[in-house]
Amino acid sequence: MSDLSNSENRDTQNAWARPAFLCLLIVATVAMRVVPHPWNFAPVGAVALFGGATFRSKWAAFLVPLSAMFISDVLLSNLKGYDLFTPITAVIYACYVFYAALGFWLRSRRQAVPIAGAALTGAVVFYLVTNLAAWWALSTGPGAEYTRDFAGLMSSYVLALPFFGNTLLGDVVFCTMLFGGLALAESKVPALRPESSMQPAAA
Question: Hey, is 61 helix, strand or coil?
Fold first, then answer.
C-alpha cells in the first residue's frame, strides 16, 4: 500500500475519532440520568455546555443534548411512569438550548474558571426560569399549589432551593467528567484533538 493510501486512511480515522469519542462521553453520561439519582442531579446541562464547546457543528451542539434529553425522558416515562410532557417541558428544553449557547462562548475558553462560570450561569438561569414557569402553571385552577402573586412566586423559589443545589452540583460534577475526560484524552491521543491543533505550524 502506498504512503498516500496510508495517509488517507489515517486522515479518515482521525476524522471519525473525535466525534466518536465525544458521542461516547455523552452517551455514557446521559445514561446516568436513567439510573436512580437525587432530584435535579443530572448530566444534561453539562452535556449541553460540553456539546456547545466541543462540537464543530452548532446544529449538533443543540440537537445532541436535546435528543439525549428526549430519549432519556421516554425511558423514564416507560420505566418509572413519569409524565413525558408537563406544562413546563418546553421551558426545560429551552433552558438546555441556553446551556448549549453558553457552550459556544466556551469554545476558545476551555479553562476551569470559564467552565465553572458557565456552569453557574446555566444553573442559575435554569433555577429562575423553570421555577417561574412552575409557579405560573401551578398557581391556577383546582388544587393550585401557589398563589398567583409575588408571595407565591417567592414561595416557589424558596421550596426549590434544594433542587437548585443539586442542579449546580450536577453541572459541576459532570462538567468535570466531560471536559476533564476530553482534555486527558486529547493529551494522550493526538487524533482526538481539534483539527486546527493538529496542523503543522507554518514555516
Answer: helix
**Which amino acid, 96?**
Y
Distance (Å) of CA 46 to CA 87, 98, 116, 120, 181: 24, 12, 11, 11, 13
Query: 3-state class of 65 per DSSP?
Result: helix
Asked if residues 127 and 167 have their Cβ atoms less than 8 Å apart, the reply is: yes
Q: Is the dihedral of CA 69, 70, 73, 74 positive or negative?
A: negative
Residue 13 has a pLDDT of 52
199: helix, coil or strand? coil
Amino acid at residue number 168: L
Residue ranges in the chain modelled with pLDDT below 50: 1, 3-7, 10, 196-203
Question: What's the pLDDT score for residue 203?
Answer: 31
